[in-house]
């Protein structure tokens, strides 16, 4: 019971921290995706954010979601740099990007991920108009 209480407390703190960043720099879409990822992380057998600084995990969560949704590309809105994330949470770029990679690998996150892509990314997916018919991939 104690572990579940600790996990829930840390998860709530992470949700508040990432929500603060998303409110200031990003949008509601990113805020919901970060919360969804945190809740999914908290259901893992070995909850990753139980060890280490909570600020690093918060920054890494935003970084992981942002990296698969082209957050760091100035041609897309919203835009935030890795420095914005690290400065907000008070973390180093190398540690943040290392933890973000751990998260991306843990959940096999990539571009146009069905579960963790923003609505803009899903609309611009080159795979959105493809279907399988008679074991062939064809355009709708």
Annotation keywords:
single chain; 140 residues; mainly alpha; two-stranded antiparallel ribbon
Written description of the protein model:
- The chain has 140 residues and is mainly alpha-helical.
- It has one domain: Cyclin A, domain 1, CATH 1.10.472.10.
- It contains six helices and two strands.
- The chain has a two-stranded antiparallel ribbon with strand order 1-2.
- Strand 1 and strand 2 form a beta hairpin.
- The mean pLDDT is 86.
Sheet with the most strands? 2 strands, antiparallel
Sequence of strands across the biggest β-sheet: 1-2
CATH architecture descriptor name:
Orthogonal Bundle
As a whole number of angstroms, the C-alpha radius of gyration is: 16 Å
Q: In the CATH hierarchy, what is the class?
A: Mainly Alpha
How many distinct folded domains?
Answer: 1
Overall pLDDT: 86
The CATH superfamily appears as: Cyclin-like
Secondary-structure-based class equals mainly alpha
How large is the count of helical segments? Answer: 6
Number of strands: 2
CATH topology descriptor: Cyclin A, domain 1
Helix/strand order: HHHHHHEE
* Distance between the amino and carboxyl termini: 50 Å
Helical amount: 55-70%
Unreliable stretches (pLDDT < 50, length at least 5) are none
Q: Which term fits the overall shape?
A: globular
Strand content: 5-15%
Secondary structure layout:
Layout: H1 2-25, H2 28-42, H3 54-68, H4 82-89, H5 93-106, H6 119-123, E1 130-133, E2 136-139
Antiparallel strand pairs: 1-2
Helix pairs in contact: 1-2, 1-3, 2-3, 3-4, 3-5
């Amino acid at each position: 019971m104690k572990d579940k209480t600790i996990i829930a407390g840390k998860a709530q703190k992470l949700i508040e921290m990432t929500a603060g960043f998303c409110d200031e720099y990003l949008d509601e879409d990113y805020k919901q995706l970060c919360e969804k990822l945190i809740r999914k992380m908290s259901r893992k057998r070995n909850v990753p954010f139980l060890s280490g600084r909570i600020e690093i995990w918060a920054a890494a969560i935003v970084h992981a979601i942002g990296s698969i949704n082209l957050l760091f590309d100035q041609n897309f809105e919203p835009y935030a740099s890795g420095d914005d994330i690290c400065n907000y949470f008070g973390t180093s770029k190398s540690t943040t990007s290392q933890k973000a990679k751990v998260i991306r690998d843990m959940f096999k996150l990539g571009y146009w991920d069905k579960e963790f892509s923003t609505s803009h990314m899903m609309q611009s997916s080159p795979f959105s108009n493809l279907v399988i018919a008679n074991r062939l991939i064809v355009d709708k």
